[in-house]
Amino acid sequence: MAGIVPALVVVAVIIAVWTLAVVPMNAHLTADQAQRDGLVMTPEAPAERQEYSGLVLAFKNPQIIPLTYTQTRPRLPSPHQVTAELYDSVFTKKITSKRSLVYHGWVTLSATLLGFAIGTGLGILLAIGIVYSRTMDKSVMPWAITSQTIPILALAPMIIVMLGAIGIQGLLPKSVISAYLSFFPVVVGMVKGLRSPDAMQLDLLRTYSASPSQGFWKLRLPASVPYLFASLKIGISAALVGAIVGELPTGARAGFGARMLVGDQYGQPMVTWAALFAAAITAAALVAILTLIERQTLRRMGMEAA
Amino acid sequence: MMAYVLALIVWGFGWWLNIRLSHSPRADTRLFSLLIPIIFGLTIVVMWEILVQMLDISAVILPAPSAIAARFAVSTHLLWADFEQTILKGAMTGYVLGAIAAFAVAILADRSPFLTKGILPVGAFMAALPIVGTAPIFVRWLGSDWHSKAAVVGVMVFFPILVNTVAGLKDSTAMQRDLMRTYGAGYWTTLFKLRLPAAMPFVFNGLKIATTLALIGAIVAEFFGSPTVGMGFRISTSVGQLAMDMVWAEIIVAALAGSAFYGLIALMEKRVTFWHPSQR
After folding, report:
1. Which of A222, A223, B47, B173 is the most buried (most CB within 10 A)?
2. Average pLDDT for residues A123-134, to the nearest whole number?
């Protein structure tokens, strides 16, 4: 908790820079708009205004500075505009409405969670296989590590078409991408965790004449829990990115990715920004929930969270 | 039926070979630890080829490896152009700019403990967010050519590198810093002779994470608009034309580029941090 004041200061600086940047970013747009509304601009010809940078233009025409913050289609919306749009599309729309971000958020979130569950389950199973089978370790593990260097998201459009061709649509294709992305962090983390008990601890269990399954349930699995949570936190944000990107190339009609695309194509920057922030908040909330579960679990197990 | 039997036989043979190899006394030699995963990969590819050929699976669903290889061979000029546009121009420019910026900010932040404390949590938080979603905004600001891709990549790689560098700069022990002080070393000498070298394992960790992010950012940003060249562009249009062999060829390029990029950074790491226990 000691870091909360410095963190807040850094956030405040970021917001301040953003607020200041709104003026030069929107100056040209606002100047054109203001001239059409009858205000006198300093270089009168729009072509001449293009010669100046946004900052210079704003200084020459100080009367447009407040107007830059209220553009309906700004290049850079101001923080309060984004907050307002976010509030509007989350709280004032019915959640069944196509314009509600709660509705779109749920579409993306359900794909994320399903994919995360699949990816985590398969990842843990594969990790157990790798730890207990020397052959799997030697043949699969190098591929698991190599696959992390591959931009897997390039597969996204193809997976969706492939699954679409055999009649699977909607939630599952996006979940497959999410699962794929959360799969490898879990495998690598779990393998590390299951191997974390040292030789002394393993020997101790042998002197207790513990069976291999007891060794697994009582030593290896508990020892892997901190590693598992570390991977889960990486995995869930990767899963969310996977679900969002899975919505992009196929023209999905719902979800955060679809909202970003719609905002981009129909010239409604606010929609894109609101979707972007909603996605960021969702990711943060997911990681926060996992951190909370981690802390509780580790405390119950008598460990201290890192 | 025949196809499944044949595929199973191939699988069985490959797996049997790997069991033999991985339990042989020479299993830990360099040759064997390279051979075993290659046999595993080959087994998968041969099974894939058999199943696709014998079950007559439509090329729209899954093209055969031979078809992908053929497509790769005839369209190398196209693949090269896409590689140049997306990886060399978009991803590399963004990666270098993002890394330099992150490095500079980390060193600035390092001068004040207050800033360090503030930047670490905010940076770690930003690194977990879906930054790739900023792609439509950057495409709108900077146009659809590679500049906007470089910007997306720069922002994406910035936070992991920043967090790791800041953490690395704190890594030297109080004893080591005290020793530097007794030598009469000032801030800058301590930074260059002790703390930056000590931070290098962390920095390279960040750089390695960022390689994949860079490729993802450059490819995904092209889904939001690009000139008629580039890997993301080619993937999305080839999917539209159901030319799956082309998509797979692009994926192979992406995989090779990703691995080579990662390997390059790992090689540099080996040269720079030769003293670190993990390298010995």
Report:
1. B47
2. 90
CA distances from B233 to A75, A245, B83, B119 (A): 24, 14, 11, 36
A263 touches chain B (CB under 8 A): yes
> B128, A237: Cβ pair inside 8 Å?
yes
Rounded CA separation A122/A184 (Å): 10
Lowest-pLDDT range of A283-287, A302-306, B92-96: A302-306
Alpha helix segments (H runs only) across A197-268: 199-207, 212-214, 221-247, 256-265
pTM: 0.84
Query: How far apart, in Å, are the Cα atoms of A132 and each of A128, A215, B27?
Result: 6, 12, 16
Other beta carbons within 10 Å of A305: 12
pLDDT in tens, A197-254: 888 888 898 899 888 888 888 888 888 888 898 889 888 988 998 888 888 766 667 8
The CA distances from residue A209 to A106, A133, A194, A199, A212, in Å, are 50, 21, 20, 15, 9
A26 touches chain B (CB under 8 A): no
Half-sphere exposure of A304 toward its Cβ, with a 13 Å CA cutoff? 1
Report DSSP state, residue A43: S
- Residues in chain B with CB shorter than 8 Å from the CB of A137 are 22
3-state secondary structure of A81: helix
Tens of pLDDT along B2-13?
888 888 888 888
What is residue B16's predicted lDDT score, i.e. its pLDDT? 87
Burial B33-45 (b: 16+ CB within 10 A, else e): bebbbebbeebeb
| Cβ proximity of A182 and A239 under 8 Å | yes
Interface predicted TM-score of the whole assembly (ipTM), two decimals: 0.80
| pLDDT confidence of residue B153 | 93
Strand ranges (DSSP E) for chain B?
A: none
